[in-house]
Amino acid sequence: MPVQVLMPARMQQFAIDELDAACHLHKLWEEPDQETALERLAPDIEVMIVSGWARKIDAALMKRFPKLRMITITGAGYDKIDAVYAGENGIVVTNAAQALSEDVADMAMALFLNAVRQIPQAERFMRDGKWIAGNYPLASSLRDRTMGIVGLGRIGKAIARRAEAFGVRVVYAGRTRQDGVAYPYFASVEDMAKKCDTLVMALPGGPETDRLASRTALESLGPQGVFVNISRGSVVDETALLDLLRTKKLLAAGLDVFMNEPKIDPAFYELDNVALSPHWAAGTHAARGMGQRIACNNVLSWIAGKGPLDPVPETPWPQTGLRGRA
């Protein structure tokens, strides 16, 4: 009997065609009543391949799929999946972080440049016809800046390479010091923030990273401080960030992610010292196509009996210490 695979939202045609040929692919997006379809399909589904599905895949949802053994996603972040529960109950989660790292790092640097050099504001100045009356005011510079990167994974390292090319000094914070990394290391984000003027968040969301960019850390950056976030809105104290930007205790911010997306705090729209992007850092044809290719490869490898290619840390492979499905 072919492996039963659920695809909740439509993916690119190559993924549909390849999986159609290798398994019994259930295309949930084609169902007129998706909730009824889930009830019908849930008892047999073994693999879920997720791209652009807004639904949170928590323990309650996973319990509806008694045969579920793998969830593969086309992006890097997997905070919408309860990976701890999955790992404890024989469900492997895979992601596609390597597909997105370069494009996301490009966006981080673009937001950094826009925030420091005020490129969006200067463009509006020109479009509004104000250049005729005089030059745009002088902006800040990248010279002599120190960038503290929180989370030196694939994306963090890609950002660090770009920052170094711009002559920006790099330091980093994380759970542990990394072997073979020459950048100065800090165990505490708040301690690192005292030694830099730019803070870049490049780590997963979730309870463990909630508001790591605290008010104390943000204040430590000083009035020339710049904050950049391309990870998740939950990793920063958003109320403190807005307050510090509003009162000019921070120079600027470049933000691709927010709390309560897409219904973000309207206060962001009122600030002229913020460069905004609609959670679009990985929004390129190349990144999306590669992410879907990696996810598809994980499913095909699973179907062939070779196991997952890109398991996340919470669901290592081969599986050990499982508690069994609850």
Summarize the structure.
This protein has 326 residues and is an alpha/beta fold. The chain has helices at 13-22, 34-41, 59-62, 83-88, 97-117, 119-127, 154-165, 189-193, 215-220, 238-246, 267-270, 285-303; strands at residues 4-7, 24-27, 47-50, 70-73, 92-94, 146-150, 169-173, 185-186, 198-201, 226-229, 252-255, 274-276.
What features would you describe in this structure?
The protein has 326 residues and is an alpha/beta fold. It has two domains: 110 residues, NAD(P)-binding Rossmann-like Domain (Rossmann fold, 3-Layer(aba) Sandwich), CATH 3.40.50; 176 residues, Rossmann fold. The chain contains twelve helices and twelve strands. The strands form two sheets. The chain has a seven-stranded parallel beta sheet. A five-stranded parallel beta sheet has the order 2-1-3-4-5. α1 packs parallel to α12, α5 packs parallel to α7 and α5 runs antiparallel to α12. The protein starts with a strand and ends in a 23-residue tail after the last helix. The C terminus is likely disordered.
Based on the coordinates given, report the CATH architecture of the largest domain: 3-Layer(aba) Sandwich
Would you tell me which CATH topology of the largest domain applies? Rossmann fold
Number of helices: 12
Domain unit count = 2
Radius of gyration (CA) equals: 22 Å
